[in-house]
Amino acid sequence: MTDRRDFLSGAWDSVPTLPANIPFGFVAGVAAVQAGFSDIQAVAMSALIFGGASQLAAIELLEKGSPLVIVVLTAVVVNLRYVMYSAAIAPYFREFRTNWRLFATQFILDTTFAIAVTEYERDPDTDRLAYWLGVSAPVYLSYVLGTAAGVVVGDAVPDGLQLDFAIPLLFLALLAPSITDEATGIAAAVGGFVAVAAAGLPMNVGIVVAALFGIAAGTLADVAEVGV
Amino acid sequence: MRLWLVVVAAALGTYALRVSFVTLFGRVEEIPPRVKRVLAFVPPAVLAALVLPELLLYGDGLSVSLSNDRLVAGLVAAAVAWKTEDMLATVVVGMLALYALSLVP
Fold first, then answer.
1. How far apart are CA B38 and CA B56, in angstroms?
2. Is any Cβ of chain B less than 8 angstroms from the Cβ of A79?
3. Which residues of chain B lie closer than 8 angstroms to A189, CB-CB?
4. Fewest beta carbons less than 10 Å away: which of A95, A142, A219, B11?
5. How far apart are CA B53 and CA A195, in angstroms?
6. Closest CA to A107 of A144, A70, A74, A78
7. pLDDT tens column, A160-171
8. Rounded Cα–Cα distance for residues B21 and A83 (Å)
9. How many CB atoms lie within 10 A of CB A183?
10. Could you read off the pLDDT of B47-70 as tens digits, one per residue?
11. Predicted complex ipTM
């Protein structure tokens, strides 16, 4: 079932993503502990949600005292993009046995998706499951271990280091490649400015509202451009 | 307890998103192109909504000026992000820019 060589080649291909992946986990661990998560909760958060941007957004809202429904809703909205990856990778996962398929999807991320689809297109003979697990294992483990390291250091991180600023910087690094044309640029501009304008809204619904405005603006710009 | 609730609920919600089309596939052959296009607007809209308030609203209220260290450092990091699309380089340069600016009186 699993082909050892394809597993190892997947693991090898994931290596370039690790230098950014580990600090992402680390920041998520530090932020969670500083927000009052227990050690186990902080590590479980990374292991179960496995989506840095959504975790950091959720932690921030918790610190502001938002209702839990808004916290969870925001985390899910931030992760909406995984639907896109789920759709794109579905044809390749089709050959897996059901249990493996359900297991494999937990590791869908921007990076794992991009690496795997590139390989699947390049070489149709790759054992897809072995390769997928090979890519996912180092990414997942390094992220969770990075979180554990962040938990250990936790409150010992001096405030003077302003490590909280790493969070918007990580988002920025994800944002840049997502803007590919005029319409996605409009989605970003509207999402960003509505979020600033809506920052005072009750219960911190600002991010969800801003995201919806941004998506709507991008869609409208698209329709206007194509002239449908 | 409420933190566990957040972790588990967000994890289940996120898993549902990941598994969505992988499970539907077969019943739904192809994600409609229009849906795909709308989904493509999710990352830019969401990520910009997360970033911009952090840069403009740090401390007390809106600050759009060169005296806002986080805005300036963020702009420097944005330039790096666009040029390199490298996550680590973006974070390192942005943090160093913030430290450098904090030394400026």
1. 27
2. yes
3. 48
4. A95
5. 6
6. A144
7. 888 889 989 988
8. 7
9. 23
10. 999 999 999 987 767 888 888 999
11. 0.89
Segment 65-94 of chain B within 8 Å of chain A by CB = 70, 73-74, 77-78, 81-82, 85-88, 90-91, 94
Please say if the pLDDT value at position A35 is more than 90: yes
- Residue tagged 């005296």 (tokens): B67
Alpha carbon distance B4, A177 (integer Å): 33
Task: Tell me which amino acid residue B40 is.
Answer: A
Query: For residue A165, what pLDDT is reported?
Result: 92
- Give contacts of A 170-189 with B, CB under 8 A: 170-179, 183-185, 187-189
Residues of A in contact with B3 (CB under 8 A): 36-38, 41, 62
Q: How far apart, in Å, are the Cα atoms of A176 and each of A16, A67, A70, A167, A204? A: 18, 31, 26, 15, 25
Which residue is listed with tokens 């992946």?
A: A21
One-letter amino acid at A60 equals E
Decide: helix, strand or coil at residue B25: strand
pLDDT at site B25: 67
* pLDDT higher than threshold 90 for residue A224: no
Nearest CB to B50 within list A51, A57, A86 = A57
The Cα A151–Cα A39 span in angstroms is: 6
Q: How far apart are CA A75 and CA A55, in angstroms?
A: 7
Question: What would the pLDDT profile of A90-142 be if each residue is shown by its tens digit?
Answer: 989 988 999 999 999 999 998 899 999 999 999 999 999 999 999 999 999 99
What pLDDT does A187 receive? Answer: 97
Token digits for A87? 């759709």
Q: Percentages helix, strand, coil for chain B, rounded to the nearest 5?
A: 75, 0, 25
Report d(CA B29, CA A134) in Å as an integer. 27
Average pLDDT, chain A: 91
Contact A86 B9 (CB under 8 A): no
Structure tokens that stand for A119 in this block: 């390989």
Question: B51 to chain A: nearest residue by CA?
Answer: A168
